[in-house]
Amino acid sequence: MNRSPLLVPALLPALLLTACGGGESATTPPTPVPPSTPPPTSATPSQGVPIPRTAADGRDLAACQDGECEVVVRKGDILRFGTVVDTEPLTVVSAGDTFTVTDPSGFTASVGGAGGKLQTGSVQIEVGESAGSRTAIRISPRP
């Protein structure tokens, strides 16, 4: 009587375990990926123009009285300057993809996108990034 037909099914599990690397599973659990954290942003004058959520003065437009501020503006905001700054109040006509201001005389200046600069009176306005209908700007004395 030949016993080899019974031997193959009995040895098959042992052969398969050896072929797959012994007692290890053929699938390994995925390695967890650490959560990505965006780099910290800062609104210091030596760095780029701030994005809306990090403007140093936030929505405090009165911070611009002295001609130096970092604020988030939207359409309809009025930027008023103190008597030491030789600049008429500026009304924000548009904020977002295009930043536009106008003064009481009708002078209008417009810049498209982040990184643009415009000058009016004795101030310079650097345009930062926009979020929806709000734009971060940095106002400083005109060079």
Account of the 3D structure:
This protein has 143 residues and is mainly beta. It has a domain at 52-141. It has one helix at residues 4-19; strands at residues 69-74, 78-79, 90-94, 98-102, 108-112, 117-120, 123-131, 134-141. The strands form two sheets. It has a four-stranded antiparallel sheet with strand order 1-8-7-6, with no helix packed on it. The longest helix has 16 residues, at 4-19. Mean pLDDT is 75; it is low at 11-46.
Q: Provide the helix percentage.
A: 10-25%
As residue ranges, the low-confidence spans are 11-46
Order of helices and strands: HEEEEEEEE
Number of DSSP-assigned strands: 8
**Lateral strand order in the biggest sheet:** 1-8-7-6
Shape: globular
* Total of helices: 1
Intertermini distance: 105 Å
Largest sheet composition: 4 strands, antiparallel
The Rg value, from CA coordinates, equals 32 Å
Provide the β-strand percentage band.
25-35%
List the helices and strands and how they pair.
Elements: H1 4-19, E1 69-74, E2 78-79, E3 90-94, E4 98-102, E5 108-112, E6 117-120, E7 123-131, E8 134-141
